[in-house]
Amino acid sequence: MPAQGAPGDASTPSLGAHTLQTQSEGLGTSPVVTDPITSQQHGSSLIVFNGGYLSNASGPVDSYGNRWKQLGNDVPFGNGYGDRFNVKAYVALAAKGGSEHTVSFTKNGNAAGEISVPFIEIRNAGVLQDVSQNYAPTGLVMTSGSVTTTGPATLIAVWWGDGGIKRMSAVPNNGFTVIDSYLKLPDNSGVQCAVAYKQVAAAGRYDVSWAGAPAQGAILWLLAFQSK
Known about the structure:
Radius of gyration: 16 Å
Number of helices: 0
Distance between the termini: 31 Å
Oligomer: single chain
Shape: globular
Low-confidence stretches: none
Number of strands: 17
Helix content: under 10%
Mean pLDDT: 95
Strand content: over 45%
């Protein structure tokens, strides 16, 4: 179920509403549409990810007509997947919102294919201050790159495991809290994912390490949102 965030100080960024939509292999449909959330009418930034088949390359469309910008390049999964799967990240700053807010992706390459779509609102955040993306090698601990803030910020960390496994754990350190995850996959497979956040009150340099089992590699994102 989607989570609805609590109102906060308009001068300080905070976690807003969020949801994670998943479709398992062979049972997907196009378009994939997230569960509706209630976002702020104005003043929020939005982040959405598309983790799944590379051939499903269409960008996001949301129910409030926001303009989405892709962050960096597509990141392909390694570990023997033959460049068939990747992760794409998109952001909408100073977004419009309201009730029944959804994001959809047209699956133009493989409508039935597996996909995971985290959709997160960061309230009172007009600035994406810093972004880090790295591919952590296979291990029991996977560490992100770092981000630097200049004041109070909301940090969003997203973990995408690459192991061919159906049951796993992914636990972040450094005060991050998991808000959505897909770590128990069905027998027909899916795209594992975990989303965590942390509020920081001051300027600084931050990272996060994920402890997980069994050992696998992971595509890791860390994003820092500020009000200015």
